[in-house]
Design goal:
- The longest helix is centred in the middle third of the chain and has 17 residues.
- The chain has an eight-stranded parallel barrel, surrounded by four helices. Strands 11, 13, 14, 15, 16 and 18 form a six-stranded antiparallel β-sheet that branches. A two-stranded antiparallel sheet has the order 7-8.
- It is of the alpha/beta class.
- Helix 7 links the parallel strand 4 and strand 5.
- Pfam families: Alpha_L_fucos, F5_F8_type_C.
- GO terms for molecular function: alpha-L-fucosidase activity.
């Protein structure tokens, strides 16, 4: 009986969605799951923390690594309170020093005085993440300025062996992060990285892990380290034309409307000017208002936000950083509230595919959506409000499990006096947050000017995003 009910449900679901043709490429289930995270943290903490540099040379003594107050639970509790869904740790940076006792390099934590050489930062963080219920990710730089095998074919297997140590001994890893940097090793040679081997190792040992690099295979770099994606940000990209460290990556940073593979963007930025902790930057931590603008320009432009926290040389998150993170969380809690409700809103659409109600636009369910007729060349939807709404941000989402479609749209805002302003924008994707000068809105009309296929919209919201002073952040 259960099998019959299941088959009937599948048939019913197929009938509902049979009219809508997906647009290739499509995201995998793990890419969809990753996109839902939206915001998580980077932890740059390693030998560089103690030498006060950004890129070490591999000549540093392990005796320099000694975080006398290290507390991974402090990191995780702050990250969770800040709303982060996970933490990615720099397990090995370019200098080659590993934060766990690797058997495949002499430049590792077992040679340090911390815990008399018995410590393991990655294990401590793994346990803390599990205890407090957030995800663990790892950064393992392929570049190694210490290892004597770097620059030879043997090094590729050294790197794979390190991958295996991590993936087999530290629990579930949600993201594996590759840096594209490729400089000389101690012998003056550069390495030819075996990316298929590296990617295949993760895929075999941790198939649900997302892999990051310039070209993926699962998610890609946004093309800058300033904290923003672009007005035009496509998840599809011609992945086979690029590789990590690709010198002309700027030509691919927006993705391509007809890209061959689904490789969405991750936006990485540090809360300080540097990625590693430098005491002279204690008063240069980004403000909660700046972090909110970064959130809007990253998550709000079809990306995920990876915000870096430089843990200090005590082994703790500095109070200036934690204060900014927690105040940023408060701003999101106050600001990211949908102001549209069905009793106050009349929805008009230019066309409607049967079974895809216009009411799906405001039901806050990303799996349901409004579908315009396939022959509607410039479909539109208008939200008219019985009572005006004070807002400064519009949210639009596509049902990306059926592909990314919108290439250009415009929004016509009408205030309580009947005055109108038109704002034009490019892509939508998973989530687009379009900001404007705050006003009392009587209506919002969205016209989809260009699309690569039939227009589908799963969600529309309005926000009033505020500053730390409890004022409009966009005015």
């Amino acid at each position: 009986m259960k099998k019959i009910l299941f088959l009937l449900l599948c048939f019913y679901s197929f009938q509902i969605f049979a009219q809508i043709k997906p647009v290739l490429p499509l995201p995998s289930q793990k890419q969809l799951k990753w996109q839902e995270l939206e915001y998580y943290g980077f932890v740059h903490f390693n030998m560089n923390t103690f030498t006060n540099v950004e890129w070490g040379e591999g000549k540093e003594s392990p005796q320099q690594f000694n975080p006398k107050q290290l507390d991974c639970e402090q990191w995780v509790k702050i990250a969770k309170s800040a709303g982060m869904k996970g933490l990615i740790l720099t397990v090995k940076h370019h200098d080659g020093f590993t934060l766990y006792p690797s058997k495949f390099t002499d430049h590792n934590i077992s040679k340090s005085p911390w815990k008399n050489g018995k410590g393991d930062v990655l294990m401590d963080l793994s346990k803390a993440c599990k205890k407090y219920g957030i995800l663990l990710g790892v950064y393992l730089s392929p570049w190694d300025r210490f290892h004597p095998a770097y620059g030879t074919e043997a090094y590729n297997q050294v790197y794979v062996n390190m991958q295996k140590e991590i993936l087999q001994n530290y629990g579930s890893i949600f993201e594996f992060w590759y840096d594209g940097a490729n400089g000389e090793g101690p012998n003056g040679k550069k390495q030819i990285y075996d990316w298929p081997l590296f990617n295949g190792t993760v895929e075999k040992l941790m198939p649900n892990a997302i892999q990051f690099s310039d070209s993926g295979p699962d998610i890609r770099w946004v093309g800058n380290e300033k904290g923003f994606a672009y007005d035009e940000t496509w998840s599809p990209i011609n992945k086979n034309e690029i590789y990590p460290g690709f010198p002309k990556f700027d030509n691919y940073k927006n993705g391509q409307i007809n890209g061959s593979h689904w490789v969405p963007v991750e936006v990485d930025v540090s809360i300080r000017p540097g990625w590693y902790y430098h005491p002279e930057q204690d008063n240069k931590v980004k403000t909660p208002d700046s972090l909110m603008k970064i959130y809007v320009a990253s998550v709000g432009r079809n990306g995920n936000l990876l915000l870096n926290i430089p843990v200090d040389n005590r082994g703790l998150i500095h109070p200036n950083d934690s204060t900014a993170l927690l105040q940023f969380a408060e701003l999101r809690k106050k600001s990211l509230k949908n102001l549209i409700n069905s009793t106050n809103t009349q929805i008009d659409v230019s066309s409607l595919e049967s079974n895809y109600s216009k009411n799906n636009l405001i039901d806050l369910n990303k799996k349901t959506f409004w579908a315009a007729k396939s022959n509607d060349s410039t479909p539109s939807t208008t939200l008219n409000f019985k009572n005006v709404i004070l807002a400064n941000s519009l949210v639009i989402q596509e049902p990306i499990f059926l592909g990314q479609r919108i290439a250009e749209f415009e929004v016509i805002l009408e205030n309580e006096k009947g005055e109108k302003e038109t704002i034009k924008a490019k892509t939508v994707g998973n989530k687009r947050i379009l900001t404007f000068n705050e006003r009392l809105l009587k209506s919002v009309k969205i016209v989809f000017l260009k699309s690569k296929a039939q227009v589908l919209i799963s969600n529309i919201e309005l926000y009033r995003i505020i500053s730390k002073r409890n004022e409009s952040l966009f005015q």
